[in-house]
Design a protein that fits this description.
The complex is a heterodimer. By secondary structure, chain A is mostly helical. Chain A has helices spanning about 5-30, 45-55, 65-80, 80-95, 100, 105-135, 150-175, 175-180, 190, 200-225, 230-240, 255-265, 295-305, 310-315, 315-320, 325-345, 360, 365-370, 375-380, 385-400, 405-420. In chain A, α2 runs antiparallel to α11 (about 230-240), α6 (about 105-135) runs antiparallel to α7 (about 150-175) and α16 crosses α20 (about 385-400). In chain B, β7, α10 and β8 form a beta-alpha-beta unit. Chain B is globular. Chain B is an alpha/beta fold. At the A-B interface, α12, α15, α19, α20 and α21 of A face α2, α3, α4, α5 and α6 of B.
């Protein structure tokens, strides 16, 4: 019976980590539903971007208030999680504060003292985040796509962090032994008197807080997959795989290049049968109407989005009341990808056509056509997501697969085709300005 | 501007003479046909003529870069345009290109290389700034002294290619008071014309993007809104008219401002 808590702990730990691992596998499978894309170039630049943007939060601090608060929470969360290591060892081996037996008291005290200070700073920052969201009601948190789950999700994360930080401090405050050595209890010494001096009660509260803390962390870990909070993990691969080209660069579709080159080649026979041994390739679909047509980086982008709305708050279309919101593009892509993933799970690993797609069922052409391709959303994103690339892929589908461009754009394109300018002027008049 | 005859050789003419210019001036569709943009084209050519830069244009052999088609989603049309243009540019062995249109600039610089068109491409503000640095162009005029000027960053020059300083260096040469809009450089607001929006009506909304951007500019109390893009120029000019401020605020290209100081 003596080992019951240890066994219980190990079971909880395995369940917690196991379920998370299962969802990570699903996440990777879903991302791989996208088109393969070559991201093997510019390795050193990519590592640099990851270190600067994800680890160094260089784009977060462009908005200083949110940026600094975020850095506090981020550093606090990473450093305080060192404590989890001790909790896990204690839990498995039935020890109590193993750190005290392996580290000099002063070193242990220094570490826990730092954790306590950070815990308070995290608590304060998270509270300020909550106030920005719910009392000040910053506009970007109250756009039309931020209702129901996305809205609750944002608050749930803040509550989680408040509770975890509180449990950590309570756990220290009610630990009689830890308080008696009086090293590192920088904050908890002031909370300690609140709990009275009944030894058995203190012990029960301490154990309760300890268990709830580790269970809370495991629940939070498993909450990630269902939440915008996935960014704490995915920001790293996402900033690594983000484009390293100037933002103005749109990729040139290779399938189109092949056909254009064939058309331009005077020796090519358009009616030629495929050469012996050469199988006729299935003609590529141009652009994207569903998540399968997007590439893996774009799908990773969708899972990485933390719905902060900086993109939308800088989007000229959104600022002037159009339906387009770059954040919604990312949220819709993730929702549809999840739907496709569930479909695959329910149909023994095969996707069964559900008569739906990302375009029209989630994202409307009206949103797609409102974009000015100005790159403000791409510039703003603190984790280097590119909503614009998805918008362009959908335009490509609308134009090249469906001939569904707005009439005025069709006129513009006809002009380019006929006279090499978006307006109906003759190419022969191109130099007339010289003599006007 | 006094009427001087412009010297605008074409590549075809130079080839007959067996000459290769220092740089090709890519005029672009707006610069060739749009009445407002043609003035920018001419202003830039006047500066080139005055400095004595050996340049040429493609003239009737130039065709749309395909930027608007590409961003409207018509990759076929874009690549047809690109391949045709690249064939001509490569036939003339063009190495260096300057253009007054950030859309042409971006497309030529970033999207032509993988289709076989590799050139050194400069926006005209970068090119003019280089002429000043090399001592070839001197600005010693007080034409705009004391004026308040704000610079509207074209998306395809700024965010897309991170050219923020060249146009500002040029404006500082003019002895003007350069005032920034609240949204500037990488956070500059679009004029509303990019991504083929120039050629269509906007989607339903509360207001037009160019009006919002013009409001940004008017808040600086500038006398002149300077920019470096023919589309931005149109959008901001329309915005100023919409705000009924056309008597107080002028919208001008950086090249026009420089040309005016040269009394060209």
């Amino acid at each position: 019976m003596e080992y019951l808590p240890n066994i219980g702990f190990v079971i909880i730990l395995i369940l917690g980590i196991g379920y998370f691992a299962k969802n990570v596998k699903k996440l990777i499978r879903n991302i791989k539903l996208g088109q393969d894309v070559d991201v093997s170039d510019n390795k050193s630049q990519r590592w640099k971007n990851m270190v600067m943007v994800a680890l160094g939060q260089s784009k977060m601090v462009r908005r200083p208030i949110a940026g600094i608060l975020h850095i506090v929470v981020y550093i606090g969360f990473i450093i305080i999680n060192i404590e989890v290591l001790e909790i896990i060892i204690d839990g498995i081996f039935g020890t109590h504060r193993i750190g005290l037996s392996v580290l000099p008291t002063s070193v242990y005290g220094f570490l826990i003292g730092a954790f306590e200070i950070l815990a308070v700073l995290v608590f304060v920052s998270v509270t300020l985040f909550w106030i920005r969201r719910n009392i000040i009601r910053l506009q970007r948190f109250w756009k039309s796509e931020m209702t129901s789950w996305p809205k609750n999700d944002g608050n749930n994360i803040l509550y989680f962090e408040m509770v975890l930080m509180t449990l950590f401090l309570v756990m220290n405050a009610t630990d009689i032994h830890f308080q008696s050595i009086n090293s590192g209890n920088l904050i908890s010494q002031f909370i300690s008197p609140w709990f009275g001096d009944s030894e058995s009660l203190l012990h029960s509260i301490e154990r309760g807080a300890w268990w709830l803390h580790i269970i809370g962390i495991l629940i939070f870990l498993n909450y990630l997959y269902f939440s915008k909070h996935l960014h704490i993990l995915l920001a790293f691969p996402n900033t690594y795989y983000a484009s390293v080209k100037p933002k103005g660069t749109l990729n040139n579709l290779e399938a189109v290049t092949k056909e254009v080159m064939l058309m331009m080649d005077p020796n090519a026979d358009p009616f030629a049968a495929p050469a012996e041994g050469e199988t006729e390739e299935e003609p590529a679909k141009f652009g994207a109407s569903d998540v399968h047509d997007l590439n893996r980086v774009q799908l990773l982008n969708a899972y990485t989005c933390t719905e902060c709305g900086r993109c939308t708050s800088a989007c000229p279309a959104n600022l002037t009341g159009k339906k387009l919101s770059p954040r919604k593009i990312m949220m819709d892509t993730r929702d549809r990808l999840e739907e496709v993933g569930k479909n695959i799970d329910a149909n023994n690993g095969e996707f069964k056509d559900d008569g739906k797609q990302l375009l029209n069922d989630y994202i409307t052409p009206e949103e797609i056509w409102a974009c000015t391709t100005c790159n403000a959303c791409v510039e703003e994103c603190p984790v280097s997501i590119n909503p614009l690339s998805i918008i362009v892929e959908m335009r490509r589908y609308l134009v090249m697969e469906q001939s569904a461009a707005p009439t005025e754009l069709n006129n513009m394109m006809t002009n380019i085709e006929n006279n090499g300018a978006p307006w109906p002027y003759s190419q022969m008049d191109r130099l007339n300005w010289k003599n006007e | 501007m006094s009427e001087t005859t412009l010297t605008v050789p074409t590549m075809a003419e130079l080839m007959v003479q067996g000459k290769q210019p220092e740089v090709l001036f890519w005029v672009g569709s707006a610069g060739s046909y749009d009445d407002r943009a043609k003035k920018i084209t001419k202003a830039f050519v006047k500066i080139l003529n005055k400095v004595g830069v050996s340049f040429a244009v493609l003239g009737t052999e130039e065709s749309c870069t395909g930027d608007a088609a590409k961003r409207a989603g018509n990759e076929f049309l874009f690549q047809m345009q690109a391949v045709t243009n690249i064939e001509i540019l490569n036939a003339y062995e063009i190495k260096k290109i300057v253009t007054a249109c950030p859309h042409s600039f971006n497309t030529l610089k970033n999207e032509y290389p993988s289709l076989g068109g590799v050139y050194e491409v400069y926006h005209h503000t970068e090119f003019l700034h280089q002429l000043i640095k090399d001592g070839r162009l001197k600005i010693a005029s007080n034409t705009y002294k004391g004026k308040r000027i704000t610079f509207h960053d074209p998306c395809y020059l700024g965010r897309a290619n991170e050219v923020y300083e060249a146009p500002r260096h040029l404006l500082k040469e003019l002895n003007v008071e350069l005032v920034e809009m609240k949204r500037n450089k990488r956070s500059a607001l679009c004029c509303g014309a990019g991504g083929a929006q120039m050629f269509k009506e906007p989607e339903k909304g509360d207001m037009d993007v160019n009006v919002l951007r013009t409001e940004d500019a008017l808040k600086t109390k500038a006398n002149i809104i300077a920019t470096g893009c023919p589309y931005c120029n149109t959008m901001m000019t329309d915005g100023v008219k919409f705000k009924e401020k056309e008597d107080e605020v002028a919208v001008m290209d950086v090249a026009e401002l420089i040309a005016n100081t040269q009394e060209l």
